[in-house]
Automatic annotation (TrEMBL), chains A, B:
Keywords: FAD, Flavoprotein, NADP, Oxidoreductase
Pathway in which the depicted protein is active: One-carbon metabolism; tetrahydrofolate interconversion
EC number(s) reported in the record: 1.5.1.53
Source organism: Cherax destructor
Biological processes per GO annotation: methionine biosynthetic process; tetrahydrofolate interconversion
A GO MF label: methylenetetrahydrofolate reductase (NADPH) activity
Entry-linked InterPro entries: FAD-linked_oxidoreductase-like (IPR029041), Fadh2_euk (IPR004621), Mehydrof_redctse-like (IPR003171), MTHFR_C (IPR053806)
Stated family: Belongs to the methylenetetrahydrofolate reductase family.
Every MTHFR SAM-binding regulatory domain range: 363-660
Name the record gives this protein: methylenetetrahydrofolate reductase (NADPH)
A single cellular component GO annotation: cytosol
NCBIfam families xref list: fadh2_euk (TIGR00677)
Keyword match Oxidoreductase: yes
Amino acid sequence: ASIMVKEGPAALPSPGTPTALPILKEFLNQREHLNSESDHSHADDDAHLYNMPEYLTGYHSLSEKIQSRIESNDKFFSLEFFPPRTKGGAVNLLARFDRMREGGPLFCDVTWHPAGNPGGDTETSSLTIAGAALNYCGLETMLHMTCCNMTKTEITKHLKRAKDIGIRNILALRGDPPHGAEDWVPPEDGFNYASDLVRHIRKEFGDYFVICVAAYPMGHPEATSYEDDIKYLKEKVDAGANFIITQLFFKAQTFIKFVRDCRAVGINCPIIPGIMPIQSYDSLRHIVKLSKLDVPQDIMDFVAPLKDNDEAIRNYGIHQTCMLIKELFDAEMAPGVHVYTLNREVATTAILKQLGLWAAAPRRPLPWKMAANHKRSGEDVRPIFWASRPKAYVYRTQHWDEFPNGRWGSSESPAFGELKDYYLFYLTSKSSKEQLLAMWGESLESEQDVWDVFHAYVTGTSNKTGKKVTKVPWNDDELSSETSLLKENLADFNKRGVLTINSQPNVNGASSEDPVVGWGMPGGYVYQKAYLEFFTCRENVDALLNILPLFPRINYHILNKSGSADFSNCHKHRPVAVTWGAFPGTEIIQPTIVDPLSFKAWKDEAFGLWEEQWGKLYPEESRSREIIQYITNNYYLVNLVDNDYPKDSCLWDVLESMFAWRKLQEEKSEDQEENNLCICTQ
Amino acid sequence: ASIMVKEGPAALPSPGTPTALPILKEFLNQREHLNSESDHSHADDDAHLYNMPEYLTGYHSLSEKIQSRIESNDKFFSLEFFPPRTKGGAVNLLARFDRMREGGPLFCDVTWHPAGNPGGDTETSSLTIAGAALNYCGLETMLHMTCCNMTKTEITKHLKRAKDIGIRNILALRGDPPHGAEDWVPPEDGFNYASDLVRHIRKEFGDYFVICVAAYPMGHPEATSYEDDIKYLKEKVDAGANFIITQLFFKAQTFIKFVRDCRAVGINCPIIPGIMPIQSYDSLRHIVKLSKLDVPQDIMDFVAPLKDNDEAIRNYGIHQTCMLIKELFDAEMAPGVHVYTLNREVATTAILKQLGLWAAAPRRPLPWKMAANHKRSGEDVRPIFWASRPKAYVYRTQHWDEFPNGRWGSSESPAFGELKDYYLFYLTSKSSKEQLLAMWGESLESEQDVWDVFHAYVTGTSNKTGKKVTKVPWNDDELSSETSLLKENLADFNKRGVLTINSQPNVNGASSEDPVVGWGMPGGYVYQKAYLEFFTCRENVDALLNILPLFPRINYHILNKSGSADFSNCHKHRPVAVTWGAFPGTEIIQPTIVDPLSFKAWKDEAFGLWEEQWGKLYPEESRSREIIQYITNNYYLVNLVDNDYPKDSCLWDVLESMFAWRKLQEEKSEDQEENNLCICTQ
């Protein structure tokens, strides 16, 4: 379009331009050193999925996540475990899941052994362990499934149960024949080969499951030839598998050649190398047995002389594995690494740290530990009450059809399930009864003894008998660093009978990268309202109800065990935000709220823990037990929110005023019974 | 329970207590003067509904709102209007609705006159005016409905249409017989009496509508007796009416007696007195005619000598009405007052202000003007683009099934309807064509002329011909006080061809009661990300795309009219929060976002306004028109968000860098055509 445009008056001189020019020149010089191709079409965040929390991106399958990591050249690792034999072993394994999750594995998988009732309901079954990893330990989880000794119908049944639990990934194997059966005979109405199993899963479940298959870089021991084995691998992939994990191998070149041979016949999906850390001399023999491979002579030469020095062998194994994987990474032949952990931790963690794959600092997409179940992928807000008990929360809400996203909402929240068995093994304390008695008191003489235990826990000091109190029934771990910010104040009040079980300081626009209070994506600002939750006696509650109107910026809610006493200045159904953050490029995230209805569901759990975890340590009818029961039946659970987060928290003033009010009442009262039920006065 | 509790060691002395005691004593002394009965059961917010925005409380019917005001003794007012005769009258009436809404009426109502096609589709029909008041002016609205000359079927049809539009309240009347009909004969299949109409509405629509009925404190002119008329009123109420509005009256005692007589026969619903301000001598005669009442002699004695001095009469009327109502309020006989405005403003507003009923300062529950349609009661988040055009937004989204609450969400937003007719009368400019030409230029010679108009608008100064520019096609009002904060910077850039149509400053935790940027409930803190939206030429856009990567904290989106050019660094579907607030006792409110999909729907409207409102002022083929068309087809619409709201906004640096980059390019380029299309360079 050619329009004659009359020259207008010179634009006003802009004060900024003379300075802006040299600065801009410098910027532009710098930029020439950067990537010059800037694509301004919509930024494809899909390439950086792993940076974005799932409540923002929506659920992405393991297949998509692997693809994303490949595209951004961000190496990953995965961990394989086997189901333990005992319940104690299961408890330990879950604790191991929690610890190893901190390193940021892309997924974990759980093996399947038909002889061990892998699809059953026991704490030690493959299905239960896989479900716990997914739901209670927040790990993307893959379940192995074998064809051996199962009919199509049985297999479908197990897969349906896996689907119900929320599992989205299956490693499809033929499996090992039962012990002693030399010639494997597939069952009637069963499968001959893993490729049949893959086809069956696709037929019955469509795209619901991501399917992985196994490969043997040196060829399967029972294969007719290496080339035939690769052809068979292609069949498995063509039947519908998404990616491949290999058996272990000893030389980088083995894997490199194998990958090239796969690509040559048209196998194009991701191929992940498997490694098995050498833990000891015996484990080397274990490796040989499991893999049916011959250990290369140079490795045997090094290891044999050290057969009494397991630590040296382990260190050698760590070094050797790192060199191997590093060679694959440098050759750009592997997108990540899959570790056969044999349920052990030390060597695996050391290898991953040396390779630089272990997350430097644990990332917190949200202040609370997220579950990995795809049904919960949009979940980004929870009541604060379960901050120390996320597994209990997941358990009690597992039946919900949908999970709150964005806001908790003001309608009645759906019902919380009950914790059927307080010894639910997911929540079993890692401490023995003896250890708990040592920490909490072999015997209790008074309420003050109970208060002293809380005091010792909060301060991290020893109790009367010199034992460090590292947990309480409401928190199986030591105080978080965030709560430590409040330690001094908490300690004093606990000693005086304000038994705190949950708290957070106020935060006014801290960086989302703050090491103590930060969470979510970088570049944001996080906020918190000061919060305190505690058990205390009736006299204190009476005092509180009198002085709280002097603190209109406080929202409070007070309940007793039965719920017959219910005091609050909150709107019946309105939740109060207590943690939120503002980030670049997104809406406001508000991950934690205080909600009157959920508090009622929580109090049953909180009151119950007195008896279930502490009271039951003592004989029935003992004084110690009576003291715990007395507290359960006569104390109240109180939560306080200080809405004025930019100001210093006034919660301590509230508590001081509470005690001061009681003192005033005593000064007024002339009668004071000798046998006061509660001597929580000064 | 009597448990022997051993006395524990004295609690640690608390450093706070000695100081706390005297302070607490003082507090408690003060408190004794306050209401001693503090009910700590859940605070019943229902008694204070009018303080809480609807997106928090949910929709409450007019009946509930009236009850709530009665319970809290918070007097209210309502306004009655009649449908205008001309389209121009309708435009003026809507502007009057907007202005009078600032005073905080509890509801307004619109009369129904069968002769005027009240249920039709025209701009002037009762139904259209009532719908506009509800949807476009944010007023709780009641529609009159009469029985005269309509069959049951016709009445039901009208009520259904009212329901579709969102109206929830009906004033059920018999109505006046058609002019000249001495004896009223109801139609076949019609209604005799208002009580029949009330019954019919309840039968056909259940509780959907709140129903009001009229009463005559001095008895209906056609009633057999005063007592019979009250009996008949009771029939109407028993048939299902929720409250009563009375005809006007002249003496307080008239109304007081009437209310007592109603209560004596068991009429217990709210009774609201109606008043009609005297505007002039003629209006007094109008009153007599409408009400069929005799004006009391003392009033006639005062007014008659003043019959040539309308202002004196109006002042007398204001005084007289205020005394009347005040007497009713002091006697606690009226919950509020209903004003027959006769579509006029001055006397009504004066009376309500004198009575202290007119809102002191306009409250902003949200930064944007809310609609009153119950279907939108949960709506609390909108894209920022329609900040100056809320009516257009309501129009284009009226068909949505549900409205965003809490979050905008990341799924595809539903489709926006088109603005069928840019002259849609709801959006018709209040200025005439002559006024617009005077402000925007009788003729345009260059793009700079257009830029100068923007500059004059932003600075509030006169244009070339000495005319103050008080509006632009995208904003029918003068700059808001909030935008005035940015005036200097905006002015300079507009002059240079950055044609801003929307902006907001960054705000970091200002009080929610701040007079300029505050909104929502008191005691909260509000936040904003700095935002800028403007039209500009291609050369500037090219420069922007080069320098924006130097400002990673900026989210941007750039579109041309057709959408063929679409540049952004936002995730395709993810909205960005630009306004939010944290308040006591609630979740985070996030009322304004920037959303890529909505921006595409908005740009059609924004680009269209060039031609529809400005271009069309000029003859076809004129240079002025061509310039506007050139801009429409060649300029781009840009929006910028500065995510780092705690820091000073860098948006001006972005624009300076844009111009600096262009200058650099020119210095590099040796060829420069004489006839540059765009001389927006320095």
